[in-house]
Amino acid sequence: MDVTPAVRRQSPSSSASSASPASWSAPSAEDEIFAALASPVRREVLRLLRERGPRSVQELASCFSMARPSFSEHLRVLREAGLVSERRDGRRRLYSLEPVPLVRVRDWLDPYERFWRDKLSALRHLLDDSVTADTEATGTETTGITTTGETGAGGRPHDGGGQPEDPDEERQ
Asked: Among residues 43, 38, 68, 66, which one has the least CA distance to residue 56?
């Protein structure tokens, strides 16, 4: 069963309220690729093909606990999306990963990757500026760790169970 959602396409001049069933069209190649990738089973098939190379239907199906017709449906969706290819080798059908359609996925995701990289970079700069401002205000970098000596429970000084090695240290 193909669970690919139908996608409604409108011309720039049409409005959402005037959309008719005639304005619906078949999913685009990108829609088919993303629909194929939506299934964890299909993503796992792609991973297996990427790591192990071409595999027969039997080899792939043995990795999943599902009925053979259900598994064949997953392979069909991957094949129609162009993510796998099928070739006959005698009586066997071998499936191979077709990485080219994944370029469309990468191209679609690239602006979002740049968006998040820019956001994280801005956060890093904000945090760096905050640490710099704290350092300039206090003269020391604030790390949340006490550097004046060890403390025990309740922030009280911990004496380590013994006497100071240098008697002059006790007076300081």
From this structure: 68
pLDDT in the model for residue 83: 96
pLDDT mean by block of 10 residues, the chain; 172 residues: 43 44 66 92 96 94 93 95 93 93 89 89 88 75 50 47 50 48
The amino acid that residue 146 corresponds to is T
Q: How many CB atoms lie within 10 A of CB 98?
A: 16
